[in-house]
Write a structure and sequence with these properties.
This protein has 8 helices and 7 strands. It is mainly alpha-helical.
């Protein structure tokens, strides 16, 4: 119900039936997400079944604040769209005979594991390796950057203040607390206990990390107090 409301509230239209508009807005949202994840320009209006829908300005601003998807995700998004276009009208049984359905499902399935330090969801492409997820050669990671630890519900154990540090900036001798605030340990010890994760983001430049941190800082300044409740 919440997702339907979000889609409905994201676009404006001057006429049409409610059910028809919701279906059309869903198509517009699919197009919007494809354009974002393939890093193509996002227009202010969308057309679905001969009706024009205007994307609200606050939604446009929200997407501008999102970080740039990783090159792997951009390539994957375009590849999936191309495959979808190629196989329009063909049955999944035919896809199965070529093993494509399974490969697409594996690519589309997000890793549900979250970083134990900041709470951001793993975005590693685990299909690249045949080894188990979280194993030595297929570790979890946040390839597009971690988030502020405060966003994961972390608080300092005494002051109850929200830590605005990010995993990438922590040093081995830095002391951190867990989400419950009852365990205090060195960052090096924490990493050893969570060896199924790679906490470094060496694939990102210093300027990219600074840009992401700046965006998270702005978001936290606006809604941080709400997230803490």
């Amino acid at each position: 119900a919440d997702s339907h409301q979000f889609i409905n509230d994201s676009f404006e239209v001057s006429s049409g039936e409610v059910d028809e508009n919701l279906t059309n807005k869903g198509k517009c949202m699919s197009t919007l997400l494809y354009l974002y994840f393939s890093q193509q320009p996002i227009p202010s209006t969308f057309i679905a079944f001969d009706k024009t829908y205007r994307l609200k300005q606050d939604i446009i601003d929200t997407f501008k604040m999102f970080g740039t998807p990783s090159p792997t995700l951009i390539t994957l998004t375009i590849a999936i769209k191309d495959k979808y276009d190629d196989y329009q009208g063909m049955s999944f049984n035919h896809l199965d005979t070529n093993g494509i359905k399974l490969k697409l499902l594996q690519k589309l399935r997000d890793c549900e594991v979250k970083c134990s330090c900041c709470g951001r969801q793993c975005d590693a492409d685990h299909t690249i390796s045949t080894t188990a997820e979280g194993s030595e050669h297929n570790k979890h990671s946040c390839q597009t950057g971690h988030q502020l630890r405060a966003m994961g519900g972390i608080k300092y154990e005494i002051t109850n203040a929200a830590p605005l540090s990010m995993c990438e900036k922590l040093k081995d001798n830095d002391l951190i607390t867990n989400k419950d605030g009852n365990i205090r340990q060195k960052w090096s010890e924490f990493k050893n206990q969570h060896s199924d994760w790679t906490f470094d983001t060496n694939n990102m430049s210093k300027s990219e990390l600074l840009r992401i941190r700046a965006k998270y800082t702005v978001v936290w300044a606006k809604i941080g107090e709400k997230l803490r409740k």
